[in-house]
Amino acid sequence: MVLEGTARALLRRLAVEQAESRIPSIVAALVRDGRVAWFGGRGRVGGEQPGEDTQYRIGSITKSMVAVLIMRLRDEGQLDLLDPLDKLLPGTPVGDVTIAQLLSHTAGLTAESPGEWWERTPGVPAAELIGSLGSESARHRPGRRYHYSNVGFALLGEIVARRRSAPWGEVLREEVLEPLGMRETTPRPRAPHATGFAVHPWADVLLPEPENDHGAMAPAGQLWSTATDLARWAAFVGGDTGGVLRPETVAEMREPAAVEDGDVWTRGYGLGLQLSRYTGPAGSRRLAGHTGSMPGFLATVWADPADGTGVLFLANTTSGMRASLLTDLLDILTQHEPPLPAEWSPAPVDEDLLALTGPWYWGPTAYVCRVLPGRGLSLTPVSAQGRASRFAARADGTWLGLDGYYAGETLQVVRTDGGVHLDLNTFVFTREPYDAAVPVPGGVDPQGWR
Length: 450
Known about the structure:
Layout: H1 4-20, E1 25-32, E2 35-43, E3 56-57, H2 61-75, H3 85-88, H4 99-103, H5 126-132, H6 150-164, H7 168-180, E4 197-199, E5 206-208, E6 224-225, H8 227-238, H9 247-253, E7 258-259, E8 267-269, E9 274-280, E10 283-294, E11 297-304, E12 309-315, H10 325-336, H11 351-354, E13 358-362, E14 365-372, E15 376-381, E16 389-393, E17 399-401, E18 410-416, E19 419-424, E20 427-429
Antiparallel strand pairs: 1-2, 1-12, 3-6, 4-5, 7-8, 8-9, 9-10, 10-11, 11-12, 13-14, 14-15, 15-16, 16-17, 17-18, 18-19, 19-20
């Protein structure tokens, strides 16, 4: 839990938001190391202050949970992210788009389903939704640009249902929500829950918003949840996956696949996860999570894997909140209680790895090799110029590039009579600049340095 002074500063920021943005009720929470470090609630739900177990609708946060189901199918080998939609869901007029493009909103599909505004009306079955799609459902060339599509996630939900031979909501409960302990996340509301309201723009009066089962469009925004459950979801997005997915798969989901705002790149999208880059008085962060809005409700959950923090809010208002609320809460936490670095302690290193540490040279450029946990390696330029990457050990004695220019490439140690060198996808690293004893591609001038 946070200190009393920190809690007061956090509650004041939440209270200001509730009062000035005229929100009927709102809850917020901060997560540290997988646990709720602070919770606050303002306003009233049924005459009572909302609590950690009060349900709100979470809108498009639902999409990130559907994306987890798709990634589970991918990891099981039941589909490939490069599969065209037609392979998994035949009969649509947009069958050439890929699963990866649907997950990242780069498929070019229309944002909304045909017919009436789906968020305020009862839904239709999947067959009827698919049958209503036409050639006009493709708004952009696949892969050309980011274009948010609720329809795309409706199609992903139907893929889950067909692959698992069960409704997507049941699959989500059994494979994700139950294992994570998120038992208060449901497709329809249960007591106690907030009622969704629109707040009149010029008077302090409310209008109840409709709530329906959205049928085939439900994977785009159907779910209800609580602060407690969303705190667990924030930890999941940050890497505490509870066995539901491999942490490496969630890290893949957090990688930018598209950018929303062009050159400045403050908002982007991965595979079912929204991304945000933010710089404030407490420093810079790269957040992953999702926003959510449905008539009468707003919600957002963010995680910062770099320091193990998460933040969320749930509110029963159609519009009017300031986007800065959650980053302000994170800044308050960091300024009042900055995290302590983990204690350093020595760790055993195998002799063969220890022998690889120290300086290496790619031509005349100096690099340094360091040992990472789990027999990993890092290769980093000594100066600011050059390509840095981390490498994970493989069972065959080679290393796989994890990031940077060499992501996905193979690093291997080559031992010859002339010595030892590193081969990184044809690039040769030697212990001396252009070591003549090593088979440097193109050879080394016999007269040497002069």
